[in-house]
Design brief:
Two copies of one chain form a homodimer. Chain A has 280 residues and is α/β, with parallel strands linked by helices. In chain A, 49% of the residues lie in helices and 17% in strands. Chain A folds into three domains: 64 residues, no CATH class; 139 residues, Trna Endonuclease, Chain: A, domain 1 (3-Layer(aba) Sandwich), CATH 3.40.1350.10; 56 residues, DNA polymerase, domain 1.
Chain lengths: 280, 280
C-alpha cells in the first residue's frame, strides 16, 4: 500500500505519497535499497494521525541514531541557517562552494564602479568569466529574495561593468558578469527579471541542476555547522581560522586544530572524526 | 548677551547660538520681529541647566499656546511620520506635493518594463518630462535611504526606460526620468550615485532649495496630520476621501466633510477651522 492519508502542516489532508518521502530519504544519502526500510521503521515509531511533519521528524530521528552520516546530509539546509545570524559566514561559505566548482575566489572586495565603489561579497573568476557575486542570507523562515534584491544587485553590477568598459582592465579580456546567491528562494518576478537581464540567480532549488543544493551535493561542500559537534559557540572560532566547510577540516590534524582553536584535543578529535564520517 | 552654554542631546556642551534657534522659530512662521520675544519667553519658562532639547521643547510649547498656526508649520516633519505606519499615505502625499508643483500625477501605476512590469508609486508628468517616482517612507528615527534603495530604484527605471525606447509610446516625445523621494535623509553614497546616473533624489533637506521641506513650504502643501484635531483614528477616514493635505480641506465645507466622513459637524468644523488658520 503506497497511499495513506496524511495531514500536511497547512492542515490540508492529502494522500501520503511514499515516493516523495523516499526521494527525500535517498537525498539524505541513504542507499536506494534501504530507503523503504528507513521509512517503515520511522512510520512504526509514530502514532496516528500521521502528518507529513511528524513523518519527516521520525525519519530524521531514525537517521540520527542509525545512520549519522546520512543525517548530516539530511540537514544541510538547517546547517546553513546555523551559519547566521550575520550574512558574513554565508558569503565565505558561498566562496568555498564556488572554489570547489573551479572558480578563483576573493571575498569582500571593494570594486570601483563608474559612479561609486561597491563592496562585492565574492569576486569569482573561471576562464574568461569574472562574476561579481552578491550573497543574500535569509534566516529560517519563508523569506524569499525579492525583485528589489535582484534590481539592486543588477544596478550594482551595471555600475561596475561601465567602469570596467572604460578602464584599462578591459585589456585583460575578462568578461564581467553578475551573480546573486541566496540560501532560500526567489520570487517569480526576481527570476524573470534575472533571466531577462542576464543576472545569474542561484537559490536553494534554482535553477534546476545548478541550484545551491546541487552545487553543495556535487562538490560535497558541506558547511561545518552540519557536524553535530559544531555548535554556535565553536563555529565562530572555526570560521576565524578559515574552516568553513567540512572539507576544510580534512586538511588539519586534531592536534593542530586544538592548537589553532584552543578546543581541547578530545573535542577536536570528535569534530574531525565526524568530518570524516560524512563521506563514508 | 547672545551666547550661553547649553547641553546638546549628545551630552556635548556648546555655546548656545541664538541665531540657530531664531532661524528655527522664523522657519516655523513667526515674523522676524517677534522671534526674539518668542525665544525670551520660552527661555524664561525653563530652569537650568539649559539644553538644546529643552529649549526647543519650550519654544514649541509657547507656540502651541500663543501662535497655533506657527506651531503647525513647526511640526510638519513629525506630521509626515504620523502618516505611517505604512508607506502608502506618504506616496499619496508626495503626489499632492508634485501636483502643487505643476505636475500631472497618477498614483500606484503598473508600468511595463522590458523584463517585468513594475508598480510605480507616482507617475508625474510636467512638460516633456515623465518621472517614475519611488517614495521611501521611513518611520521616526535615524534611518536613511541608502545606496541599495538608490540602486534598485534606478534599475527599475532602466527597465521601464528600455521598454519605452522599444515601444510606440516613444512617439509621444515624453522623456522618462527616475525620481526617489524620502521623508528622511540619504546616505552620501546614495546621493553620489543618484547624481552620477541622473536619478533625481529628493530628501527632507536634499537638494538645497528643492528639498522635500522646501517643496512643502513653497507649495504650502502641509499634510492633514499637521492639524492638532487630526489623530491616528480620523486620518484614515480623511485619506479614504482623498483628503491628504490641508489644502484639500479648503475645497470642502464642514457639512459636506461631516456627510462624507461620518465625523460629527462640530468635529468637522474644528478640523476645517484649523485648516484655515494655518494660512493666516
Amino acid at each position: 500500500m503506497n497511499h495513506w492519508e496524511v495531514i500536511k502542516s497547512s492542515g490540508q489532508r492529502e494522500g501520503y505519497d511514499r515516493a516523495k518521502i523516499r526521494n527525500s530519504v535517498i537525498h539524505a544519502g541513504v542507499p536506494l535499497k534501504e530507503a523503504d526500510e528507513v521509512i517503515e521503521k520511522a512510520l512504526r515509531s509514530i502514532s496516528p494521525p500521521i502528518t507529513t511533519k511528524k513523518l519527516f521528524r521520525a525519519v530524521k530521528k531514525y537517521l540520527r541514531t542509525e545512520s549519522p552520516q546520512s543525517n548530516i546530509r539530511y540537514r544541510i539546509k538547517d546547517a546553513i541557517y546555523a551559519l547566521g545570524p550575520t550574512g558574513y559566514p554565508f558569503e565565505r561559505y558561498v566562496a568555498k562552494i564556488l572554489e570547489q566548482q573551479g572558480y578563483k575566489v576573493k571575498v569582500g572586495q571593494m570594486v570601483q564602479g563608474r559612479c561609486i565603489s561597491h563592496e562585492v561579497d565574492v569576486v569569482a573568476t573561471k576562464g574568461r568569466h569574472c562574476y561579481m557575486v552578491e550573497c543574500k542570507f535569509h534566516h529560517k523562515g519563508k523569506t524569499r529574495s525579492n525583485i528589489r534584491t535582484a534590481l539592486y544587485v543588477h544596478a550594482r553590477f551595471l555600475d561596475i561593468k561601465r567602469a570596467y568598459a572604460e578602464s584599462e582592465m578591459r585589456k585583460s579580456g575578462l568578461i564581467p558578469k553578475g551573480m546573486l546567491v541566496t540560501n532560500t528562494r526567489f520570487s517569480s518576478e526576481a527570476i524573470k527579471y534575472s533571466e531577462c537581464v542576464g543576472l545569474k540567480a542561484i537559490g536553494w532549488k534554482h535553477p534546476v541542476g545548478e541550484s545551491l543544493e546541487k552545487l553543495i551535493e556535487h562538490g560535497k561542500t558541506y558547511p561545518v555547522t552540519a557536524l553535530p559537534s559544531v555548535n554556535r559557540k565553536n563555529v565562530g572560532v572555526l570560521l576565524k581560522h578559515d574552516i568553513v566547510t567540512v572539507k576544510d577540516l580534512e586538511k588539519i590534524s586534531a592536534v593542530n586544530l586544538s592548537k589553532a582553536t584552543g578546543f581541547d584535543v578530545r573535542e577536536s578529535l570528535r569534530i574531525i572524526k565526524q568530518a570524516y564520517s560524512i563521506y563514508e
